[in-house]
Amino acid sequence: MRILLAEDEPALANWLVQALLQSGFQVDWINDGRLVASSLKATRYDALVLDLGLPGRDGHDVLDGLRDGGHDLPVLILTARDSLIERVHTLRAGADDFLAKPFELAELEVRLLALIRRARGSGHARFACGPLVYEPVGQQLLLNHQPLKLRPREHALLRALVQHSGEPMSKRDLMERIFADEAEVQPEAVEVIVHRLRKHLEGSGVQITTLRGLGYVLEAATTPARTSVPDSSGL
Question: Which pick of 4, 174, 184, 235 has the fewest CB atoms within 10 Å?
């Protein structure tokens, strides 16, 4: 799950990025409200964590702009302004949830998962496509109720696909989730990992399908998976 964090306190932001990364989230951090709109245009996010006291453009203005523009991205407000009036005003303006500082990381994680599940029309604490299930709490992929043993990058790519089951994801989207901290990674690296995953999923009832010009989509298997490349070591 990819999160956009709009927060102007560097210490808090750095802590959140690292902590959420360990919990299976991918987090991009910006520290100015004027950067929110351009960030959302450039990258597909599952949720926005928004501080109200941002420089450049405060959180209220950012939220109003998103909702006036018809953007339905789940928004969780982080703020030190913990009052009933502030909560009511923010939720009425279109925020999906409100968390006052200081807060516990575990509570933030649970609330983010709930927002994302609700946005996807699911009330279950997991993501699934046919016999393949991802359980966020244990960060575990299960295939036919059995743990799926994968390399870290294979796990990251398949997790992203099952979290967006039925929706095509471009190579760029997948590269940003798998190789976020690495420079000069070629798109062919994604093809290699997809090829390996197709071997793991062969005959399982779920497959990764290539949609020309769009990317890859995870779906219940009806026909053999298409488009693969030779395997390569070192990824």
Answer: 184
